[in-house]
């Protein structure tokens, strides 16, 4: 039985003042929640999050990570630095990184490996665009993105990783994949992994992301291969985020 995980992606939102209120509300409400819960926050807020959440059942992480260990890479943040701030997770390959910052499959794979090498659990985001879905390429795209990581990290790399299926057309749009649409892709991801290592596939957590709200979370999380969610907009409202976490109970 896979324990569900709900991870919030704050994107580039928040301020020290707003975060303080949000984190206090999360700390207060989390006692009722049985699944694993994490927040992935902008780098400058990691110290605040570490100091407020240390010792609670909430975990935290970053939204990206450098593929390099250290060196002359102005503006970058290494996985070891993230570990120093108590990060458990790092998102890699979020569709906004892929589309707005030109991150290729190969770069995402390098970031995945760098994160793991420093002891972070990468949350590998995969997903097709609307054009790709309409062209019937959903499974091919997701499979290609996943294979790029397996080719570099090896199938064992997925042992301490989380996968998040996030159809690009559902992120921040209010349009969510139907539970059946999401389940179909999740099952395909698990089957692809299962073709290489059955036991690993059975234990692999595959999150769904894309306009998850308190109203649709329970139906999504009921699907056989959906092991929780990666939550954007709704992660900024404590009441909504906690309701989504409770839906995963
Ligand atoms: C995301 O940012 O990964 C995401 C899924 O956003 P939203 O929940 O707002 O669609």
Automatic annotation (TrEMBL):
Keywords: Cytoplasm, Gluconeogenesis, Glycolysis, Isomerase. The keyword Cytoplasm applies. The lineage of its organism: Bacteria, Pseudomonadati, Pseudomonadota, Betaproteobacteria, Rhodocyclales. One of its GO terms (molecular function) is triose-phosphate isomerase activity. It catalyses: D-glyceraldehyde 3-phosphate = dihydroxyacetone phosphate. Its EC number is 5.3.1.1. Substrate binds at residues 9-11, 172, 211, 232-233. This is Triosephosphate isomerase. It comes from Candidatus Dechloromonas phosphorivorans. It is found in: Cytoplasm. Pathway: Carbohydrate metabolism; erythritol degradation; Carbohydrate degradation; glycolysis; D-glyceraldehyde 3-phosphate from glycerone phosphate: step 1/1; Carbohydrate biosynthesis; gluconeogenesis. The active site is at residues 94, 166. GO terms for cellular component: cytosol.
